[in-house]
Amino acid sequence: MPYKYVRIAGNRRQVGQALGKLARPLMSVYLNQSSTWDALRRWRGHPYVAELGQQAQAALPEIWEELEGLADGLRMPIEDVLLWNCRGDLLHSTTDGCTTVALKAADGSRWIGHNEDGDPYLYGRCHLVDVALEDGPGYLSFYYPGSLPGHTFGANRAGLVQTINNLRTRQRHPGVPRMFLARAVLDCTTLDQAISLLQDLPHSGGFHHTLGSATEPRLISAEVTPGSVSVLEIGTRYGHANHMVHGKTRGQAQIITESSRERQNRIEGIVDGWSPETGSSDLLAALHDKLGALPILRTDEKDPDGENTLATAVFEIRDEEVTLRVYDRKTMADIALDVMSDPD
């Protein structure tokens, strides 16, 4: 499998510490080979980074406590851990990619599928963390070493599902860093609560959030940028890559890579052919599509964006039930987890 499954329980600081300890053996080597970290280091000690930290601590003190625990577990200065978790707010382009699809089926079920694309070095070196919090619903999330969970794919015990796609916005505004916001969504219990969180807090970076819930039939596409927030309810089917496509946001200054453009065009063509009878095998086939020089499934060591598919997730959402299946890009092995049930 492309990850290890780990259970964690405790308060905010304890959970952060456990996440840091998971990543500690790898973190130094990981950062040393990372072009993103190389670009970030020039921001060390910059007042703007300190301001982002202050905004995060003021708006989301519980998540800040997790970051403090993460730094403790990693045995790294919190300034460096904050810097790493602000990478998309500081750099216009990072090695965080992804493609997401969504579908409402004829039987009332909702489906969200997602390719987690990132630094090829991380293939086989990530975790799927199953977190039980003392003061929150708890969640499952794909976990990058040293990064707050939530900015990849995940779902919580309240039945809220979230997948994230990187947006390469050219804007920088003081606000709450995007990875803090994505993590905070997994503490929400309803779609309206999650949408309000994204709309009400100031944001310093850009993410696309696909949201679903086991307690209502809506699926949501939200492009959250420093300039604005665009929230659309998905009709029957949808596909999204790594640039802004909503009418409200697509005119903003952004970087659209050739890979993102090609994947967006290809995924739109695929989902346009779906019907309400489409099922999980169709979502998986779309996400593992290899057509074209810059395909949706990304395995090329020379990928122009420096990204490869690390894992593929398919969420099946029914009334009071969420099932997560995670697939490997190579072996097609999968694990099925009932998200809303407490672990044994």
TrEMBL record:
InterPro entries: C45_proenzyme-like, Peptidase_C45, Peptidase_C45_hydrolase. Gene3D superfamilies: Penicillin V Acylase, Chain A. It holds the Pfam family AAT. Residues 107-328 form the Peptidase C45 hydrolase domain. PANTHER family: BETA-ALANYL-DOPAMINE_CARCININE HYDROLASE, PEPTIDASE C45. This is Peptidase C45 hydrolase domain-containing protein. It comes from Achromobacter kerstersii.
